[in-house]
Amino acid sequence: DVVRMLPDGDILYVGRNDDQVKVRGYRIELNEIEANLLRLPGISKASVNAELDQWSDKQLVGYYEAAQTHSPEQLRAALQATLPDYMCPTRYVHLQAIPQTPNGKVDRKRLREAPVVAQAKARPLALDGIANRYVEMVSGVWKQLLDLPHIDPQSNFFDLGGHSILAVRMQGMLSELTERKIRISDIFKYPSIAALASWLDEDPRDQDQAVVAQGEDRANARRKNLKRLGRRRG
């Protein structure tokens, strides 16, 4: 911590002179994440920033130089082998060159404006047997929430950097778009675009009947348990 003494003797907190940040309650050393990124095959330079997303929530963003682009799932899975989840960046950006200051240090202020490596054009989303409108709808919501240009429909939302707060936002957005009651548990139960779109494509009446049937099964199981307890006490 860097402080300055004022003329009246009070201490004024100025800030930190290291790369430690606080994200969702965790204190994180950015240098440690960068070191782990540099250990991955093919990555020549790396820098990690704590940035505000469109909802003003702080998130970790990993920038890197490499001969080829790595998918977010690949990078996140590789980092999870050595780092806890809260230290794995939410987003990964493949830059043509990481900007530097005149003295050779990473210019963190210019990272967001640095030229990125062009990505291959994604193929249109289409999954056999699933209404295309739901695939496109879920994909659009995910791209907005995760700030990603392309997402594999089989990718896991939480492997791409999704977390509980974003899951709640997804629940609200999809409930509004579909005009259907979507529970937060549904987001966790169907964590990919393909699975969630397939579930949305089902007849809501069938889903309601399935929920009722599950409830009846649980109620029957409880009644049986109560009868067994009654016999033992008798």
Uncertain stretches: 121-125, 206-213
Order of helices and strands: EEEEHEEHEHHHHH
Our estimate of the beta-strand percent is 15-25%
The global form is extended
Tell me the distance between the termini: 69 Å
Task: Give the overall average pLDDT.
Answer: 81
Largest sheet: 3 strands, mixed
Helicity level, as a percent range? 25-40%
Rounded radius of gyration (Å): 24 Å
Description:
The radius of gyration is 24 Å and the shape is extended. The protein has seven helices and seven strands, in the order ββββαββαβααααα. It has 234 residues and is an alpha+beta fold. It has helices spanning 30-38, 72-80, 132-146, 164-178, 184-189, 193-201, 204-233, and strands at residues 2-5, 11-15, 20-23, 26-29, 43-52, 58-66, 91-94. The longest helix has 30 residues, at 204-233. Helix content is 40%, strand content 17%. α3 crosses α6. The strands form three sheets. The protein has a three-stranded mixed sheet, covered by helices on one side. The chain has a two-stranded antiparallel sheet with strand order 1-2.
Q: Which helices and strands, and how do they pair?
A:
Elements: E1 2-5, E2 11-15, E3 20-23, E4 26-29, H1 30-38, E5 43-52, E6 58-66, H2 72-80, E7 91-94, H3 132-146, H4 164-178, H5 184-189, H6 193-201, H7 204-233
Parallel strand pairs: 6-7
Antiparallel strand pairs: 1-2, 3-4, 5-6
Helix pairs in contact: 3-4, 3-6
